[in-house]
Specification:
By secondary structure, the protein is mainly α. The protein is about 70% helix and about 0% strand. It has 9 helices and no strands. The longest helix has 26 residues.
Length: about 190
């Protein structure tokens, strides 16, 4: 199974990749408190922005080129070939799930209500329920507000995040097309 193009694309979404750096920088800039403030100071934030710039410069154009907007994309062809090389339905479903799970950090950032409910309920268990709900609602509102204007920004972290979000939606389209062609329903 060949995974060169796929890995290059998905590395941006894996922990420690470009997405993680963007989330850290945006969390710091807008004081979202998804990470404790003490874990991120000005110097670390500047280092993070420098790493985003370097990663985005190296990967930005290539990321857009790998984005699966049509069935001629090298990424599309690689995933299709990989899927066709697997013999059993279980192997195919496992492979597709490996591709999807990479986007969990992006999902956690875009939908913090769900993310916080799953990840932080144990930590917040002693806070009153109304306080927890209000905190999650405010965070979700802040993120929606930020996402509302990042499409027209000069901030490198916001620009990179916008590109990553669009590419993730394109990837969803690619997986849907590949699944449809191969008669696979991973929602089952």
């Amino acid at each position: 199974m060949k995974r060169d193009i796929e890995d290059k694309f998905l590395d941006a979404y894996r922990g420690g990749g470009l997405l993680s750096l963007c989330v850290r920088a945006i969390t710091y800039k807008y004081d979202l408190r998804m990470i404790p403030k003490r874990d991120m100071d000005e110097k670390i934030n500047n280092d993070c922005l420098s790493a985003i710039q370097a990663g985005f410069d190296l990967f930005g154009d290539e990321l857009c080129g790998l984005s699966p907007r049509n069935d001629q994309s090298p990424l599309y062809k690689e995933i299709k070939d990989n899927l066709e090389s697997l013999n059993t339905k279980a192997d195919k479903e496992r492979y597709l799930c490996e591709l999807i799970v990479v986007f969990s950090d992006l999902s956690g950032f875009l939908y913090p209500d769900t993310f916080y409910q799953i990840k932080y309920d144990d930590i917040e268990q002693f806070a009153p329920a109304e306080e927890r709900i209000e905190r999650r609602r405010k965070l979700s509102g802040k993120i929606s507000e930020i996402l509302g204007f990042i499409y027209d920004t000069t901030d490198i972290a916001e620009k990179a995040l916008f590109t990553l979000i669009n590419a993730a939606f394109d990837f969803e389209y690619l997986l849907s097309a590949v699944c449809l062609i191969n008669h696979i329903d991973i929602v089952d």
